[in-house]
Q: What sequence folds into this?
């Protein structure tokens, strides 16, 4: 069931992870380069299912922390994650069996692959969000009772810290303060878990799913097919059952500031042939809510993806720019992310939004299961490159 | 040579420490209460000289970190220092033999006494400043080659962190960010040292010296004598050889803001019978420079103390207020604090001041060694309560 990642897998996985990153989780190009360097050095990336872990094995989730806007200007060194990983092992007095991702994202799905290659450890095919979220307490691990602490955090300057926080939200606050001081980006290992906890609390199979999403988009491009229809067809039958085109249009406004360690802002899209038909997306690293003419059409923890209308390629929040032709694509979040406990942590209230959580498929009854309907409904036909 | 601290010693020590705290290091009243609680519970405070430490013993300096303005509103819990101390012991995998202060200050000279009583450990009669400074890298320990890391930091909320920084200034930056996030005040143990390092890098005998300063002020009050003349006489022959009255007047302006985790600001005093004769003090937790009519009369690392003109009682920066009758008293810093390495770390340049360092006794040639001369020179005779 486990497999070694090929160069092609890596390309697909990076792109698919940026789709599930919902605007955040970092740039897939930067992330991919980090892993390619390891593959070029002859190292291998082994992906295994949680069911392949031996009983009682220690697994350390590993990622980067910070505003994606920072990663664009300050490229990851490649050594910080190993430093954080080793610091946490040393603190625990135990050797880890495997690495795993904390979230899906163009960069943060790649970090564990790079680290696994560097350390010669397998990477578990699962994570704690099945998407990207901006804050450390927003993980299924924590929702299902795993402590984020002790966590280790490292900088590019040779600093490491071990945090034992009184709760997962406190851990986020302390680690965020350190991350800002470390230059806006840091390397972390948190939520140390044993096999049974990994199996019980993770969103499973997400690395392979990201690879499949990227593969679907690549093949649609090769075949000049509609990437969104292909994506919707592919997602049916996975734990992300509903994929739907929410809107297609042109970016007419972007507000984005890097504050408090996050990329915060909003983007407004106008339909190409109906300039009064507007969709507004609010983001905090990741897209939180999409409102069409004031009405919520998708809200966290459902996924709001900004994809290039011509190619289906994901466009992260830090790259949003005036004039881009984008398709806003919604994906229903897996069931483990919709429990009352999960919604209390990373539903709308977790971000200070007053809108209630309503499942994507209920907000888009007509379109669900048929991305093209929504696309047609939202105005103009998309550009014909893939038609 | 070691001794158990009496209740009277404690009173004297708290007051003397606030004098050497040069406006910072925390309020002596709050500090004293923390130790009195331990004495009232039947615990003892044992003070020992560095020469009484067994060879190879581990010593952990312990203190509070944050803006003194915060301590006034948010009293220390009394348990945070033990949490930081234990976290550092655990990280090092060793048991400490003794506690010691990092600085002299109304609160930070008391913290190790409280902790020693709580843990049943002796307190070393030495510290790393012989005064108070606002930042963690500003210690003779670091100037003489001791690493501040690993350090432990704890909050009142049950959080602990261990920082392994790439340098002592980096350690300050990371710990400051955590302290702000912890509510503006935290509990730390840093610069873990063995006996030989303590002996080589400390300012020695400062706890006893603080006690002697407090005793001198108390007796002067009892005898209706001039506290400043008594202080100057007492300091002669110690490693703080010169004590001098720099100015006497009334506080006519105070600017004070709690920003970036520090109490920053300035105070202006006017001579009582010559309102155009002004002394301005700039502070960052501690008093940094005193300028009389624009001319520097004392500058870090020499000590600038704001003392009540009637009683000699120290007035910390967080308590400075309009209308107070204060005597600004300068004390020459010990020789270990005046080396080129020391001045590079905590001389004027360490605080962004463009003025060069000039020893207090050179700036006040006429007055040095005779506090009353300077006092007479600075305008009116002091109030006659002790005359």
A:
């Amino acid at each position: 069931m486990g497999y070694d990642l090929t160069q092609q897998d890596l390309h697909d996985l990076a792109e698919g992870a940026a789709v599930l990153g919902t605007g955040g989780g970092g740039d897939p190009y930067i992330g991919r380069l980090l892993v390619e360097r390891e593959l070029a050095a002859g190292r291998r990336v082994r992906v295994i299912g949680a069911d392949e872990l031996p009983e009682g094995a220690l697994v350390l989730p590993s990622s980067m922390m910070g505003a994606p806007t920072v990663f664009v200007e300050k490229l990851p060194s490649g050594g910080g994650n190993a430093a954080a990983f080793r610091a946490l092992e040393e603190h625990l007095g135990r050797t880890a069996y495997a690495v795993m991702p904390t979230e899906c994202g163009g960069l943060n799905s790649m970090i564990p692959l790079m680290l696994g290659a560097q350390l010669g450890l397998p990477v578990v095919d699962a994570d704690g969000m099945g998407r990207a979220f901006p804050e450390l307490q927003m993980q299924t691990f924590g929702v299902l009772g795993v402590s984020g602490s002790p966590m280790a955090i490292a900088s590019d300057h040779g600093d490491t810290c071990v945090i034992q926080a009184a709760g997962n939200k406190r851990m986020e606050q302390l680690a965020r303060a350190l991350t800002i001081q470390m230059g806006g980006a840091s390397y972390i290992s948190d939520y140390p878990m044993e096999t049974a906890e990994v199996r019980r609390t993770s969103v499973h199979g997400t690395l392979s799913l990201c690879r499949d999403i990227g593969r679907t988009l690549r093949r649609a491009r090769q075949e000049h097919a509609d990437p969104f229809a292909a994506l919707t067809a592919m997602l049916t039958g996975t734990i992300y059952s509903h994929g739907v085109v929410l809107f297609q249009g042109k970016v007419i406004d972007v507000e984005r500031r890097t504050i408090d360690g996050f990329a915060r802002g909003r983007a407004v899209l106008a339909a190409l042939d109906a300039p009064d038909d507007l969709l507004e997306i609010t983001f905090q690293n990741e897209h939180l809510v999409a409102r069409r003419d004031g009405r919520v059409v998708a809200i966290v923890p459902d996924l709001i993806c900004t994809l290039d209308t011509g190619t289906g390629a994901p466009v992260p929040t830090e790259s949003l720019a005036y004039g881009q032709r984008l398709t806003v694509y919604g994906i229903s979040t897996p069931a483990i992310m919709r429990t009352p406990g999960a919604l209390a942590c990373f539903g709308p209230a977790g971000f200070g939004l007053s809108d209630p959580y309503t499942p994507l498929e209920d907000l888009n009854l007509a379109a669900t299961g048929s991305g093209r309907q929504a696309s047609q409904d939202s105005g103009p036909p998309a550009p014909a490159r893939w038609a």
About this structure: The longest helix of chain A spans residues 206-222.
